Amino acid sequence: MSDPDYSADGGHGAVPLKNVPTGLGERPRGEWPLYEVFVRGKRGLNHVHVGSLHAADDEMAVRNARDVYTRRNEGVSIWVVRADLVVASSPDEKDPMFAPAGDKVYRHPTFYDIGDDVPHM
């Protein structure tokens, strides 16, 4: 028999559905914000996006991200970012945003005079 105050939806164990204290105030679990999770591995120098999760507040998001995405001790640092706070470019803007800078001659080595005493460039 299941307890109506807990849910195991998503396969991550029993999660309280009522009276969860958060920094965001009381809200039902279905209204918890979505967080994007980034983990830096032991041998990596950068954080890599590993997935998403819902959490009641930032602290819960970090704890849950640790439990879900670093279960095998593979991370040294975790970033969690509320998905609604992420600012991104649109794929429709890819041409003007990422077009090569062919018209900027100063970015090409042919723009500069190379002295005779420079052996390799």
UniProtKB/TrEMBL annotation:
Chain residue ranges for the region called Disordered: 1-29
Pfam families recorded: PaaB
InterPro entries: PaaB, PaaB_sf
Taxonomic source organism: Marmoricola endophyticus
Gene name, Swiss-Prot/TrEMBL: paaB
Listed name of the protein: Phenylacetate-CoA oxygenase subunit PaaB
Upper classification of the organism: Bacteria, Bacillati, Actinomycetota, Actinomycetes, Propionibacteriales
NCBIfam families: PA_CoA_Oxy2
Positions in coiled-coil regions: none
